[in-house]
């Protein structure tokens, strides 16, 4: 169980409402979300530039016989298939590409979702304690609305505390974007 203040609890509540089928995780890191999706009967694809992270996910998926296909690739070069995914998630992975690239990847996400497909995306807010940081691209709510135009979204700001050991306890402020792709005429 995830701490109630942590954004991951939104994901746990979302799982039962997502139509089963194809799922994509962008920048899976440890693969926690990919594993949960695969364990809940999704056919999962995960794309990450970090080969070591993918190797760990692959080892776990093989051991548990989970349907997870891994792509060692930069998300900016990934082939998003049109109307293919029932669910796409990206947990703090879009913060490490430029604003322009984030907008382009966001448009690809929208196009690759099937009708009634859902997103679960977490990005760091410009209100986060790490802002500004030259290695990251923090977001505003207005930027996110523009990026995910075409999906009926809910953008929630959430602040929580984490303790990574080295840094100690510190505050994060993130935006949690959830949404469903509806018919084009219904969105306008």
Give your account of this protein's structure:
With 188 residues, the chain is α/β, with parallel strands linked by helices. Helix content is 29%, strand content 31%. It has six helices and seven strands, in the order H-E-H-E-H-E-E-H-E-H-E-E-H. It has helices at 8-14, 32-39, 51-64, 99-112, 141-147, 184-187; strands spanning 22-26, 43-48, 68-72, 85-91, 113-124, 152-163, 169-180. It is globular, with a radius of gyration of 16 Å. The model is unreliable at 1-5 (pLDDT under 50).
Concise structural overview:
The protein is an alpha/beta fold and 188 residues long. Helices cover 29% and strands 31% of the residues. A hairpin with a 5-residue loop joins strand 6 (152-163) and strand 7.
Defining traits:
6 helices, Rossmann fold, 188 residues, alpha/beta, globular
Describe the protein's topology.
Elements: H1 8-14, E1 22-26, H2 32-39, E2 43-48, H3 51-64, E3 68-72, E4 85-91, H4 99-112, E5 113-124, H5 141-147, E6 152-163, E7 169-180, H6 184-187
Parallel strand pairs: 1-2, 1-4, 2-3, 4-5
Antiparallel strand pairs: 5-7, 6-7
